[in-house]
Amino acid sequence: MRASVLCLLGSAILADMVSAAEQDVLEEVIVTSTLRRQSLIEAPVSVTVLDAVTLRDAGQQHFEDVLASVPNLHWAGGTSRPRYFQLRGIGEREQYEGAPNPSVGFLIDDIDFSGIGMAATLFDVDRVEVLRGPQGMRYGANALAGLIVMRSADPRDEFDFSTAASVGDYGTSSIGAVATGPVESLDSSWRVGVQRYRSDGFRDDTYLNRDDTNDRDELTARAKWRWRPSESTTVDLAWLHADLDNGYDAWSIDNSRTSLADRPGKDAQKADGGSLRIETAAGSLGSLTVIAALSDSKGEYSFDGDWGNADAWAPYTYDYFYEANSERRARSLEVRLASPDSKQGLAWLVGAYTLDTEERIDEVSVGEYIDPFYPEYSGSADDSLRTHYDATNIALFGQLDGALNERWGWSLGLRGEQRDAKYRDNGIQDGEPRVTDTSEKDEMWGGQATLHFDASDNARLFATVSRGYKAGGFNLGRAAALKERFEPEYLWSFDVGAKGEWFERRLYADITAFYMRREDMQVSTGIQLDPIGDPNSYLFITDNASGGRNLGVEMSARWRATSQLEFGGSLGLLHTRYSGYRPEGIDLSDRDQAHAPEYSLSLNATWRSPLGWMARADFSAIDDFYFDVPPNDQRAAAYSLVNLKAGYEAERWSVHLWARNVFDEDYAVRGFYFGNEPPDFGDKRYIQLGEPRQVGVNVLWSLR
């Protein structure tokens, strides 16, 4: 069936190519997340830009929907929405993997959501930019592997109002509205958008006779104000409120979508954040950019530790539950002074950055196991822990850009950063009181050196050497008794790439080959302290390997074949290895790193008729990958997904029919290997399944 559908799509595509006469060009793409705004071709970095049209055509509700479009971007489940990302095989995989210390930076309208990117809904989002490789020059310690930047749509200088609604199976529905317009008396404009999304969550709890224990209830509200006090000054204010009140009941003993839990959990995040960006002329010096942001995010993460109920485990009493309530506050300020852009002379940029992060976590793990046949194996848990983490990052950075001649250019940048972190906790662990009070200071530096060659006006070749860094940190709770802290990690990356436009700007393509050398590589591993009777004793510990290496290739292309038809695609190839790391005496020097698939492929085709009809097909494929390091040596199977969309688009309204995971593929997004079934508690592979097939309809109406 799958082959037949793809053949029919291919026939329609070829027919359209033959009949079309007019050829359109691709729109110019500007990269805004680098220190200087550059066109996609000029930016000497491996970057993917998903514009508003792509997000609307390929996405549905969340950043999760378009992840497959970015080569060498992967994510780990274990949550209701992705927020633990891996770029080029580097990133976090767990809920609480030591104190906040992400490898992949995540910004929404300049607001830092690194490690807590659950709020990445797509409603009224204008673009997503993903920079791969160390972005120490741009974002320092939180961007060892790369940086993801989301920007919502800007205000418009004319009034407009639009509303959108969607319905689908699994109880899916959404409704949202956007209004924008000018305030001419204040030389400004504004924009406000609000959306509510709901879904049952694709699982059934047969014990509680409910289909909503894994549900999604997501409210997103955005507001922007743009003020232009002069021709050379722009002031942007952005505000975000995201309230994701999602259930979390994603695990089953039989690895199905049927739950037996008597106490299903939650994965909720309520976030408020704001940012101020000022861009103004600085006289003969050039331009001044000031970016200030703040955020306050509260979270609840809980689950049924035994995944069952009294009837399921009889005659054994087996009942465990885990809950963590967290609050994170972040304040950041960045100031940049840049000389005027220069194609031939020397251009410079200097800046300073500070980030203050504070996180509190209150966690409770309770339960009991009673074996009526072997009472000596019975036990109970009543653990609690209150943690407080506070860190201040201060950085200075500078960059020089110059031209050797009309074709050759260079760039050199350096960033120094100091992080002062304090951690303390208190609580009851294994029936004993626990108190920890410790601190850490890291002084780190990174930078980049780039040489580029313009083969033509629309093609650039580049070679970059960059050094990224990631601060050390602390393991939490009982994990600290095994490994209290871990050291900073450094990464050297060597990138060689080419990008350009051809055939009268109807074809864009890029390719980047990279080799990354990791020093004091931070590695997360899991261990179950009590293998019989207590599933909540499974701990995550971060340690340092002596090193690692990650190398591969990233490619992407867009081709406007005709005025009505466009093709796109991306390919990521990845080879990863550990160095000097032997968990439980097992040498991992010949094994892939966790959540680092060797290939990721994405293909798409979009057809738009002058009569208003449209259709789009998306195909993605992911290679198999390891879930973790030993003792979890299990792999997820390779899988492929097909998404389809078709509809009619008039000047002021549109309607689309969409289907995701058309062939209802079962695939794993997270997995563990441990004992969770009495009385033997033998180690077993457990997986969290991705979303099944889903079908629905979108309707959009706009005033203009």
Descriptive labels:
mainly beta; 22-stranded antiparallel barrel; five-stranded mixed β-sheet; 704 residues; single chain; 5 helices
Describe this structure in words.
Strand 20 and strand 21 form a beta hairpin. This protein is mainly beta and 704 residues long. Mean pLDDT is 91; it is low at 8-22. The longest helix is centred in the N-terminal third of the chain and has 18 residues, at 2-19. The chain is 5% helix and 59% strand.
- How many β-strand runs? 42
| Low-confidence sequence ranges | 8-22
Summed over residues and divided by their number, the pLDDT gives a mean of 91
Separation of the first and last Cα atoms: 41 Å
- Radius of gyration over C-alpha positions, nearest whole angstrom: 26 Å
Strand residue percentage: over 45%
What is the assembly state of the chains in this entry? Answer: single chain
**What fraction, in percent, of the residue positions are helical?**
under 10%
What topology emerges from the helices and strands here?
Elements (H helix, E strand, L loop, with lengths): L1 H18 L10 E2 L6 E2 L7 E5 H7 L14 E4 L7 E4 L2 E2 L12 E5 L2 E2 L12 E8 L3 H4 L6 E7 L7 E9 L3 E12 L4 E12 L4 E2 L10 E15 L2 E16 L9 E2 L5 E17 L5 E18 L5 H4 L3 E22 L8 E24 L8 E25 L4 E22 L2 E25 L2 E12 L2 E2 L4 H4 L2 E2 L2 E14 L4 E13 L2 E7 L9 E7 L2 E14 L4 E15 L19 E10 L4 E10 L2 E2 L8 E2 L2 E11 L3 E8 L7 E8 L7 E7 L4 E9 L2
Parallel strand pairs: 7-10, 14-17
Antiparallel strand pairs: 1-2, 3-9, 4-5, 5-6, 7-8, 9-10, 11-12, 11-42, 12-13, 13-15, 15-16, 16-18, 18-19, 19-20, 20-21, 21-22, 22-23, 23-24, 24-25, 25-28, 26-27, 28-29, 29-32, 30-31, 32-33, 33-34, 34-35, 35-38, 36-37, 38-39, 39-42, 40-41
